[in-house]
Amino acid sequence: MITGTAITKTFRQRGGVLGHREVPALRGVDFAIERGGAVCFIGESGCGKTTLGRIIAGLETCDSGEIVIDGTPMSGLSPRRRRPYFRRVQMIHQDPYSALNPTRTIHQTLRAPLALRARQTGRPKPWIDARAEELLALVGIDPGYVLPRYPHQLSGGMRQRVVIARALTMDPEALVADEAVSMIDVSLRLGILALLRRLREQLGVGVLFITHDIATARYIGDESELYVLYRGQVVEHGPTETVINEPVHPYTQSLLSATPVLHGLERPGPDRIVPTEALDERHGDAGCLFARRCPLATERCERDRPVLGHDPAYPTTQRHACFHPRRRQVIPLAAGA
Amino acid sequence: MERHLTAPGVRIRGLTVVYNTPSGELPAVSGVDLTLAPGTITGVVGESGSGKSTLALSMLNAVQPPGRISAGSVEIDGLGDVVRLRGEELRRTRGRKVGYVFQAAQNSLNPLKTIGAQLLDLGRSHDVGDLRALVRDARELLGRMGMDGARVLDSRQHELSGGMRQRVGIMFALVLDARVVVLDEPTTALDMITQATILRIIREVHDERALTTLVITHDVGAVAEVADDLAVMYGGRVVEHGPVAEVLGAPEHPYTRGLIRAIPRLSGDLGLARALPGRPPTLGTLPAAGCVFRERCESSLDLCRTAEPVPAARAGRTVACHLPGPHAVPVKRKEYA
Ligand SMILES: Nc1ncnc2c1ncn2[C@@H]1O[C@H](COP(=O)(O)OP(=O)(O)O)[C@@H](O)[C@H]1O
Ligand SMILES: Nc1ncnc2c1ncn2[C@@H]1O[C@H](COP(=O)(O)OP(=O)(O)O)[C@@H](O)[C@H]1O
Ligand code: SF4
Ligand SMILES: [Mg+2]
Ligand SMILES: [Mg+2]
Q1: Which pLDDT score, from 0 to 100, does residue A19 have?
Q2: Count of CB contacts below 8 A, A vs B?
């Protein structure tokens, strides 16, 4: 189990004439990934998704807050002692093209981490190649075909499967999949999503799935949780199907409304809203972070910051950070219905 | 309806484009007939490698070696056959008569010059008399796409995010007031809200200026809302072409059906969605005879191995498939309920 508590991270950026400016990428984010569980983080670009993924994978440190892996808080450990913990969290990047070394065959790519793994666990040499074949079969590709080939000889979908197989060489407890299907042909995305689902079920691997395409989050398997991130704050959190079908935060509703309607098959949800203004990081920090773009914002929203929780006056399954929660049917309906 | 009087029609006939490869010249686009009705937006969809970008380049007679247009014509009202244009005449056509954003346009800006300087270069090379008006138009277009136009014109490529660059590309395609506009993957890799904003603007500008527009994408969702017509490409052929809601609602070609079933969706039964089996073809792996899709087709006949299906009119559209239509096992609406 991996948990994060009150994770914050602020970047200092060089801002031309304005000198330096501070960009709060994460403003106190809490989450928990159970063994074999799945949590999805969604939001526009620039909302802090990648930063969070990198912190969970140990590729970046947080300014404050705590990451706990299997009961061990990371803050108390030296970077060297942290390493074996973070090895249990493997990151899968968006771009399967640049993730693999173009000068190495897939066999060479898998052999190196497996040799390390064999030393760590005292396994004999022949285990290495057997395991490489086993992992490729597990991710759904023919080892005989793939092993001798170079990355450029494989399709995008196959390459992403190889990247996943490489992540599995470390026997991870969790995978951080950052936009892992965004660069793959739409026709092949469900195949990769089904694979992640299978890894959860068969190996008990936890998945942290980061995406800007909310529809893909539905395919990550049962009992997944959805976190909606806006400018570094979680603004809605609950079971994936609940948040998609009965979203209460206007930002979640904007995101869902932006998903295209497949005319002929679907018609727009009756409450669909059009987001007004593009995200601008220079928007002020007073009040609700979404107030500047929110069609429902009131004076109170401009002044106070809503915190993630429940509203006793409007009971919901999910938690949200909005003063005016209301369920809205924004996702498409079947054309005939 | 006035726009229908002024927007130009485009007729592509028998278009074949070949690339020179180690195994000789192989066709990436094969004998394509495609009519873009004046004043419509046509979406061209298909997996990577299906020939979409090659088709887009042909619309400007801009196929580069090792490729060449080996047969066919691209007739544009008021311009004639673009395939026959040469030299100065061709140069003036590109941008001024046919606006375009090529795939990966986000990386095609000059890194050393500001966007504004590049805009002036473009204006001068097309003998635009009133450069001030050009800058004003550019600022206005950028403003509508949610950006601070003046600031963007003062920026260099590296100061803009991927989404901003993509919008700058679209501005360049529209600013010279071309009447035919070709957009190759204009929203790929953008988040949903940015995509929705860009698509809305494409539609608005298209309507205001009486354009005939071609939008190319591997993601059906990205054109489902914006396009009037949909052309589905596979292995260098247009396999189905018709009104968007009809093609999506009741696809005739087995490839179209598979493509639609593979889209991750916000509503509908998760179990019925699945990735398209098999791999998209490459130039070298296309079958030499019969239907190009037969190896991945779930309903192929003996005939499909020997004879290539000829595009024929049926069910209010054009379909290239040997199966008798309307298809015996139509996609049940229920699948998407
Ligand atoms: N290394 C960095 N240096 C400075 N700013 C950064 C850095 N990484 C991310 N940021 C900023 O932090 C914010 C969140 O970025 P990111 O985590 O990449 O968001 P997302 O993955 O949701 O698009 C953005 O404003 C981004 O510009
Ligand atoms: N410069 C080139 N040299 C050789 N083959 C090419 C070249 N450009 C494209 N192709 C091949 O032509 C086919 C169609 O490519 P393209 O038009 O880019 O398809 P799409 O845009 O649908 O992905 C692909 O098989 C691709 O590999
Ligand atoms: S708190 Fe106010 S501004 Fe923020 S999302 Fe809710 S209604 Fe909109
Ligand atoms: Mg990111
Ligand atoms: Mg292309």
Answers
A1: 62
A2: 152
- Judged by CB atoms closer than 8 Å, whether chains meet at A213 and B264 is answered as yes
Q: CB-CB: which of B222, B274, B280 is closest to A190?
A: B274
Asked if the Cβ–Cβ distance from B191 to A44 is below 8 Å, we say yes
- Pair of tokens at residue B153: 């014109």
- pLDDT tens-place string over residues A166-210: 999 999 999 999 999 988 888 889 999 999 999 999 999 999 999
**DSSP type of residue B114:** -
Type of residue found at B242: G
Average pLDDT over residues B196-208: 91
In order, the DSSP letters of A58-90 are TSS--SEEEEEETTEEGGGS-HHHHHHHHTTEE
Q: How near does any CA of chain A get to the CA of B14, in Å?
A: 28
Stated pTM of the model:
0.92
Dihedral of the CA atoms B257, B261, B264, B268 (nearest 10)? 120
Pick the CATH number of B10-60+180-330 from 3.40.50.300, 3.30.70.270, 3.40.30.10, 3.90.950.20: 3.40.50.300
Listing DSSP states for B218-255 in one string gives S-HHHHHTT-SEEEEEETTEEEEEEEHHHHHHS--SHH
Helix (H, G, I), strand (E, B) or coil at A28: strand
Residues within a 6 A CB radius of ligand 1: A 11, 13, 23, 25, 43, 45-51, 281
Pocket of ligand 2 (CB under 6 A): B 19, 21, 28, 46, 48-54, 66-67, 282-283
Domain ranges of chain A: 106-165
- Find, among B278, B241, B269, B243, the residue nearest to B256 by Cα: B241
What distance in Å separates the CA atoms of residue A48 and residue A45, rounded to the nearest whole number? 8
Among residues B313, B323, B318, B326, the alpha carbon closest in space to that of B237 is found at B318
A109 contacts chain B (CB < 8 A): no
What's phi and psi for B120, nearest 5 deg?
-65, -40
B92: CB partners within 8 A, 6+ apart: B126
Enumerate the domain spans of chain B: 10-60+180-330
The residue among B241, B237, B291, B306 whose CA lies nearest residue B28 is: B237
Q: What residues of chain A, 249 to 288, have a C-beta less than 8 Å from chain B?
A: 254-266, 274-275, 277-279
Cα separation, B208 vs B306, in Å, equals 48
For residue B47, give Cα distances in angstroms to A162, A184, B52, B251, B314: 20, 10, 9, 17, 24
CA distances from A215 to A55, A72, A212 (A): 25, 34, 9
CA distance A77 to chain B (A): 36
